[in-house]
Write a structure and sequence with these properties.
This protein is an all-alpha fold and 99 residues long. 78% of the residues lie in helices and 0% in strands. It has four helices and no strands. The model has no long low-confidence stretch (mean pLDDT 84).
């Protein structure tokens, strides 16, 4: 009877080790659940960013004002009849004259 009890006890210990520390164990499950929550947060942030970019694309395709504003701010375009003045700070002027 004693050898059977010993074998059953060893089997119980092995099964418990597999349950807690195995490749499909409880600790691995908690780690995977945390990783899923983090990935869901990242996906939500990326989905919000995609919605913003999609809204910008629609605005640029449909609205002339948005296209004009982007051309002015990023490309330096000016309207016909406008005068563009560029003011250079004194510190930049002194640095460029020393070269």
């Amino acid at each position: 009877m004693k050898p059977i009890a010993s074998v059953l006890f060893v089997l119980l210990v092995v099964l418990q080790i597999q349950l807690w520390f195995g490749t499909h164990g409880v600790f691995k499950l908690h780690n995977l659940e945390d990783a899923i929550v983090q990935q869901i947060d990242i996906n939500e942030q990326l989905a919000a960013r995609n919605q913003q970019l999609h809204a910008q694309v629609i605005e640029l395709k449909e609205g002339r004002e948005a296209l004009e504003d982007r051309a002015r701010s990023h490309l330096g375009f000016i309207k016909e009849g406008e005068v563009f003045y560029r003011i250079i700070p004194a510190a930049d002027e002194a640095a460029s004259s020393s070269n």
